[in-house]
Amino acid sequence: MNAVILAADGVNVAQNVAFGIIAAIMIFAALSVVTSKNVVHAALWLVVVLAGVAAQYILAAAEFVAISQVLVYIGAVMVLFLFGIMLTRAQIGKEFGLTNSAWPLGIPVAVSLLGLLAWVIIDAYEDDVIPEPAGPTPTEALSDQFLSIYLLPFLAISFVLLAAAIGAIVLARKD
Amino acid sequence: MLAVNFLLLAAVLFCIGVYGVIARRNAVMVLMSIELILNSVNLNLIAFSLMTGAVDGQVFALYVIAIAAAEVGVGLAMVLMIYRNRRSIAVDGLSEMKG
Asked: Could you say which residues from 59 to 98 on chain A have a Cβ atom under 8 Å away from some Cβ of chain B?
């Protein structure tokens, strides 16, 4: 069980300390997202979680994915969420009735799921050390993959995005 | 860097997201919890990419980001339509489909 100790042998201490700090902030922010009484505050806590995920991507040497995360999630998805909040509610400030009457049911489900996942993960990867990345993944390598073996899903995803854009307009249009 | 650190962080985020989906009544908050779940899966994909040294995990993470953007767009459009018809986005009030 010494696997979760941050500064284990043969690993980069600075990277682990940064990971731990960001992870603690992310978990706190994620708990705030699901427990906050104010919808706008929950959306802003979600920004903290998404930024933390982007920071973890940079620590994991996945620069292009980190930049995409910032552009797509923090830039576009959060604006969509704030618009959704703005268009679907009248009052600003604390709101009651944001949680179901059966919300305590969620706690045992989440805790038992976490226990199961943690058991499986620790069992499978007990002391595996990830080799320290030599440097950021070149975007060239990603584009080579996208335009060779993953070309068909790449085209499919452009159709999915087009269909989603048209579908969203059709659904949200007043007529 | 230990492999379990990344995977346990992703598991914790996933479970918080599952709790949010179960506990929240406001449809926009449910969508936010789904974003938490998708991000935890992305974190796992990046960790596996780092473990194997192949970039395939990052490619999948980018696909998940694109799908999540589409999902949020359509989901919020549906929420807006529900709000327009019912003046409320409480998910437990949507019980027209007797089941």
From this structure: 59-62, 64-65, 68-69, 72-73, 76-77, 80-81, 83-85, 87-88, 97-98
- Report the CATH number at residue B34: 1.10.287.3510
Q: Predicted confidence band at A133 (pLDDT cuts at 50, 70, 90)?
A: confident
Q: Which two tokens stand for residue B73?
A: 């767009």
In whole angstroms, give the CA distance from residue B59 to residue A143. 9
Nearest-Å Rg of the Cα atoms of chain A is 20
CATH entry, A2-95, from 3.30.70.2750, 2.40.40.10, 1.20.120.1200, 3.40.50.2300 = 1.20.120.1200
Q: Is residue A1's pLDDT more than 50?
A: no
Q: How many domains are there within chain B?
A: 1
Q: Give the model confidence (pLDDT) of B13-55 as tens digits.
A: 999 999 999 998 888 899 999 999 999 999 999 999 988 888 8
